[in-house]
Amino acid sequence: MSTRLATKGRLLNTGKQIRFSFNGKQMTGFEGDTLASALLANGQMMMGRSFKYHRPRGPVASGAEEPNALVGLGTGARFEPNQRATTTELFDGLSATSQNHWPSLDFDIGAVNNKLARFFPAGFYYKTFMAPRMAWKSVFEPIVRQSAGLGRVPKDRDADRYEHFYAFVDIVVVGGGVAGLLAARAAGEAGAKVLLLEQTAHWGGRAPVDGGVVDGQPVDKFVEQLVRELHTMPNVTLRNRCMASGVYDHGYVLGYERLTDHAPDMNGPRHRLWRIRAKQVVTATGAIERPLSFSGNDVPGVMLASAVRDYAIDYGVSVGDRTVVVTNNDDGYRTAIALKNLGLEVPAVIDARASGGGGLAEEAHALGIRVETGKGIAKVLGGKCVTGVAICSQAGEGAVLEEIACDAVAMSGGWSPVVHLWSHCGGKLIWDDALAMFRPDVDKAPTGADGQGFVIAAGSANGALQLQHILTDAQSAGEAAALAVGAKPKHAAAPQAQARDEAMIEPVWLMPQGAGPKLRMKAWLDFQNDVKVSDVMLAAQEGYESVEHTKRYTTLGMATDQGKLSNINGLATLARSLNADIPQVGTTTFRPPYTPISMGAIAGEARGEVFQPLRKTPMHQWHEDRAAHWEPVGHWRRPYCYPRQGESHADAVAREINQTRGSVGMLDASTLGKIIVKGPDAGRFLDMLYTNMMSNLKPGKCRYGLMCNENGFLMDDGVVARIDDDTFLCHTTTGGADHIHGHMEEWLQTEWWDWQVYTANVTEQYAQIAVVGPNARKVLEKLGGVDVSKESLAFMEWKDGALADVPVRIYRISFSGELSYEIAVPANQGQALWDKIIEAGAEFGIMPYGTEALHVMRAEKGFIMIGDETDGTVIPQDLGLNWAISKKKEDYLGKRAQARSHMTDPKRWKLVGLETLDGSVLPDGAYASAAGVNANGQRNMQGRVTSTYHSPTLGKGIAMGLVLNGPDRMGEVIEFPGTDGTTYKARICDPVFYDKDGEKQNV
Amino acid sequence: MSDTVSALNGATFQGFVTVEDAGLQGMITLRGDLGSAKLLAAVTAATGLVTPSQRKIVSQGDMAVAWMSPDEVLILTPYDQAGTIAATLAQALSGEHGLVQTVSDARTVVRLTGAPGSVREVLAKLAPVDLSPQAFEPGEFRRTRLAQVAGAMWFDDTTSARIICFRSVADYVFKLLCISAEEGGEVDYFN
Q: Which of A267, A636, A832 sits opposite B184 (nearest CB)?
C-alpha cells in the first residue's frame, strides 16, 4: 500500500495540514501536495476506471501527462470533470469524486466489459456500423452509449470569472526547468524582453529530483540562484502556474494561467488566457518518460519510474514498500537508488539490456540492489493492486523464470522530448536511433512570415538528456533567440555540470520481445482508452498503414491526455507490425492545447451581461422602464411592442396601430443607418450605388432609393436627403448601417479611388423620433419653433430648426402611409425631445409603437422590407419596383447583372398581395403548391409568403408573397399547405391594402 | 444644455483603477488630404494645434487633435464649442474637398485613473495592443477593439487613460472596463 514517508518531501509544508474529501471520505494532506500525492499518502492507489473496460486505474505519472487519475473536482457551480489529480494542487476543502464507474469505484458493474474484452477489439465501434442496421439500433448503440464518456457534464452555471490578457514580448520561453531558466537568463542578459512560462507552481522541472552538480553546487541551489537572478532583471517576467497551450502563426502563443485553482477562496479570476505575440519562442518543455509494454502494465501500482521518484522525493510518498524497477535505460536506476536511500526495498532492477547499465547501475549495485540484466517482466501479478511480478528473459516469449513479490513496479521505457509546441506550427521531427526518440529537426523549425524559424527547442525538449548537454543547449538556445530578435547576446560559457558515464538505451517496444497473443492482450499502450499492443497489431493486420488512421480506428492517443504516454509506443508497435522503420510510420499530428484548458478561459470576460455587445438607443432605458417587449435587431434591442397590464402582444400591437392610424403615435427610429456622403463626386457616386437617380435631387428634398450588389440582388433601401450641393445623407436599414458604410468605402477605396467623395457614418450622432398619424402636425405645432405646414415642409422634404428649443432636422417621410415626421436630434438630447413630444401629444393620446406595429403598417401600405421580401436572391424587378430603377442611367451597381437571362426570365416569381378567403392569417414562409411533381418527386411550388400579418386597420389577415406570374393572376385563388395539416386558400391581390393613392401621407 | 446627457450619465466604478464617465466631449471628424497646407492651416487656426502624425495625438488644455487614418483626424473640443469650431473649419476649407462633421453625440468617452501599471493592465485585458510603457506612451493614440467592439485609446499621463467608443455600446464598454478593473484581477505585469 502507498503511504507517507517520515522524510516528508521537498515540496511539502508539513506545518500546514489540509483537509479534503475523496468520494465523500475525509482525508488529510499537506500544503504542497497534489491531489494524487495526497491520495497516495492516504493509501488510495485506485483513483478511477478506464474508459472501455472499466479496469481499475491508479496514477501512472506525476504530472501533466497523466492518463488515469482523472476526477470530478468541486461541486455545484464549481464542478469540473476530468481533472488530473497529478496537476491538481491540494487545498482545504477540496472535494473530488472518481469517474466512470457504477455503483462504486471498488465494485463496478461496467467492468464486465473487461471479461468480454475479446468481443470489443480495435475498431469495435466502427465494426458495429458494418453489422445489420437493426443491430446498431437495438444492440450496439445502447452498449456504446452506456459505456461512453468519462466525467459528468457540469449542470450549473460556472461561478468563477475568467479573463484574457494581451502581452507583447521579444521571446517567450516555455518551461521553467533548468533549460528554460537558463535560456531565459541568456536572452534576458542580452537585453531582450522575455516572458517565461511554467505550468507548475515550482521552478526547476525535474532537475531537483534527478540531482546533479552545476558549477560546483547542487542543481537545486543552482535553480534557486537562477530564479533569483531572473527576478532582478526588469526585462524578464516569470509566471508559474501558466502553461503555454499552443504556438500559432506569427509568433502567437496562448498561455493558460491558473490563478485560483489552488486557492479557490482567493478573490479574482480563476483562469487568465494570455494572448501573446512573441518574435521568438523557446520551447524548454522537457521530456516525458515512456511506459514499457508488458502484460499487466496497467495494474494500479505500476508507474513510470520518474513518477515513483517524484512521489518519494517531492511529496514524501512511497508507492509501496517493495518496488521492482524495470527499465531499458539508465534512468530507471535513479528510482532504485532514490528509494533505497529512503530506506525502501527494491527487490530487483530488471534491465532489459543484456549488457546492463552504466555508472548509475554500478551505484545501485554498490547499494546492494539486485540487478537482473537481459530480463523482462512476463506479467504483473494482482488485479486492483500489484502483488508481484513474474520475470522472464527479454529475448524469449515469456516463460516465467521467477516470481518476485512486490507492491509497486517502476517502469522506464526511455524518454520522449515534449515536441508538442515545436510541432503545433509546423516544426518537423527526426527519429534519433541512438536515443530512441523523436526530437526536433533544428533545420526544419516552424517558420514565420519572413521564412525564418521562430521556435527554438532547448534542453531535453531538444533531445538533450544529460545535464551537461541540457545546460549547453539551453544557453545557446537563449542566445540564438536573443540574436534573432536583434538583441546582443553575451556568448557566455554554459554552466558546467558533473558528467556521468551512461550506457545507451535499448529500445523495447514489447516485453518480452516475443510475447504471444495472451500477453499482448494485456500489454497496455493507452491506459485511458484501453488500447493494447494487440489492438494496434490487429489494426495493422486489417490493413491500417497510416498512423493517423490507426489512431482513429483504435482510439490510441485520443483520450484526454492526447496520447502523451502512448503515441510513441503505439507507433513503434505499428511500425513493427508493418515491418517498417519508425520514421517511415511517423507521428500523429500534435495539436493545441498541450493539455485541456477551460472553456471559461477561452470565453474570457464574454459572459453574462457582456456576452455580446448590446447596442442601446438614447431612449433605451425609457423603453425598458415601460417593460417593452424586445426584438433583437443586429446587436440592437428594439421595442417590439409596449404591452400594458393584462395585454397580449397582439393586443398591444393592435392598440398601437389603431392609435397611430386614428390619431398619433411615435417610434424610436434611432437605429436606422445615417451615412453622410460628401464631395464633388457625391452625386455621381450615389447614382452608381442606387438603382435610381440621386444626382438630380434638389437640396431640401428626399428620395427613396434601392441599393443592389454587383450581382443585381437588392441589398438595402432607404430615403436619401440632399443636404447641399455637395452633401447627401443616406438612410439605411438598421441592420445595413455598418455594412452599407463598408460597402461604400470599399468601392471608393478600391474601384473609384480617384472620385472625390468622403463618407461618415453618423448613425449614432442622432436620436431619430418618428411622429406619425393624422395629428402628428398638431403635436409638432404645439412644440413650436418650426413651421411644419404642408406649404413649408411638404411630403419628401426636410428642414433644420429648433423644436421646443431642441436643435432638430425634420424629414417628412413616411413608412406607414400616414402624415409622418422623422425628427433627428443630437443623441444626447434624444430623451429630452422624446419626453417633450409625449407631453405635447398627451391630449391626442400619443403612445409609442414598436417594430411590429411598424411592420404591419408598412405591409398594409405594400412597402417592402429588406430581409422579408428580400433574401439575397431577389432583384427589385421581382418586387415590382421598376419605377425605382432608372432607365436613363448608363450604369449602376447591379445593372448588368440584372440584364442576364436568368434575371429577365419571365418565370421569376413576382410580388403580389395575398388575402385569405376567410380573413385568417397565412403562415409565414408558407409555399404555394402547384400541380405535379418535380424531378425529385417533390410537389411543385409556385410561390411563397414573404410577409404576413393580421391587420387591425382592415380587420383581416394580409400578406405579401412572391408568386409565379403573380401580377397577371389577380383574383386567382392559390393554395398554401401549412405545417399544421391545414391548406390555406388565398386570393392574389394588389400588395397595397391601404390608401393606395397615398392621400393620407400627403396632407 | 440641461437636457443634454452623456450616454453614461456620470457613471463611476472603483476597482483597482477608477472607471468613470468622462462626461460630454466635443468631437469633430475631419476627413481630407492631411498633406494639404490649407487643411493643416485650418486645423491650427481652429484648434491652435499642429495636426499629429500617424498614431499620435496632440493636445493642449481642452483641445486635442488625434490621427485616425491617412485621411482623417478627430478633433476634441469642449462640448459646447464643437458646433462653432466645426463651422469655422468648414468655412476655412471651402473650395477644398473635405468633410467636417460633429460627432460629439455619436461617441462616449470613458476615463481610467490609477497606478500607472494598473491602468495599462485593464486595457490589455480587452485590446490586442502592446500597452507596455515602452511601446505606448502619452502622445500615442490607438484605434483598436475593446473585446467585441471598436474603440480608441490614449494616455493623458502615466496614471490616466481615455477610451472612446460608440455611444450605443457605452454600457457594454463601461461594464467591460469595470470587470477588467475588478479587485483581484491585478496582473502585475507592466513595470
A: A267
Mark which residues 310-339 of A lie under 8 Å from B by CB.
Answer: none
Q: Which residue of B has its CA nearest to A620?
A: B168
Mark yes or no for CB contact A613/B187 under 8 Å: no
Please, what is the average pLDDT of chain A? 95
According to CATH, the topology of domain B26-105 is: Alpha-Beta Plaits (3.30.70)
Q: What is the pLDDT of residues A72-81, one digit of tens each?
A: 999 999 999 9
* Beta-bridge partner residues of A771: A666, A821
Architecture, CATH, for domain B12-23+106-180? 2-Layer Sandwich (3.30)
For residue A146, how many other CB atoms are within 10 A of its CB?
Answer: 12
Which residue type does A380 have? V
Domains by residue range for chain A, with CATH: 1-155 (3.10.20.440), 162-288+416-484 (3.50.50.60), 291-413 (3.50.50.60), 508-585 (1.10.10.1100), 620-671+765-858 (3.30.1360.120), 673-763 (3.30.70.1400), 895-989 (2.40.30.110)
Amino acid at residue number A564 = K
* DSSP H stretches of helix in A190-304: 207-210, 219-232
Q: Which of A137, A56, A143 lies closest to A100 in space, CA to CA?
A: A56
| Same topology between domain B12-23+106-180 and domain B26-105 | no
* Complex ipTM tops 0.85: yes
Shortest distance between the Cα of B157 and any Cα of chain A, in A, equals 21
Delimit the domains of chain B by residue range: 12-23+106-180, 26-105
| Cα(A215)–Cα(A494) distance, integer angstroms | 10
Q: How far is A149 from chain B (nearest CA, A)?
A: 34
> In this complex, which of A613, A765, A833 lies closest to B105 when CB atoms are compared?
A765
Q: pLDDT tens across A583-619, in order?
A: 999 888 999 999 999 999 999 999 999 999 999 999 9
Neighbour count for residue A651 (Cβ, 10 Å): 14
Contacts of B130 in chain A (CB under 8 A): 166, 168, 277
- Chain A CB contacts of B167 under 8 Å are 618, 764, 827
Q: Which residue from A minimizes the CA distance to B133?
A: A168
Whether a cis peptide bond, with omega within 30° of 0, leads into A593 is yes
Mean pLDDT of chain B: 97
Task: List the 750-779 stretch of A: residues with Cβ below 8 A of B.
Answer: 756, 758-760, 762-766
Q: How confident is the model at residue A101 (pLDDT cuts 50, 70, 90)?
A: confident
Which residues of A are less than 8 Å from B121 in CB distance?
Answer: 165
pLDDT for residue B1 is more than 60: no
Please calculate the CA angle A858-A859-A863 and round it to the nearest 5 degrees: 60
Question: What mean pLDDT do residues A539-562 have?
Answer: 92
Q: Which of B91, B142, B187, B188 to mutate to test the interface with A (most CBs of A within 10 A)?
A: B187
Average confidence (pLDDT) over A637-653: 97
Residues A520, A523, A525, CA angle at the centre, nearest 5°? 120
Q: How far apart are CA B133 and CA B125, in angstroms?
A: 15
Beta-strand runs (E) in A357-428: 371-373, 375-381, 388-393, 402-405, 408-412, 415-417
How confident is the model at residue A270, as a pLDDT?
97
Task: Mutate one of B13, B68, B99 to test the A interface: name it (highest A CB count within 10 A).
Answer: B99
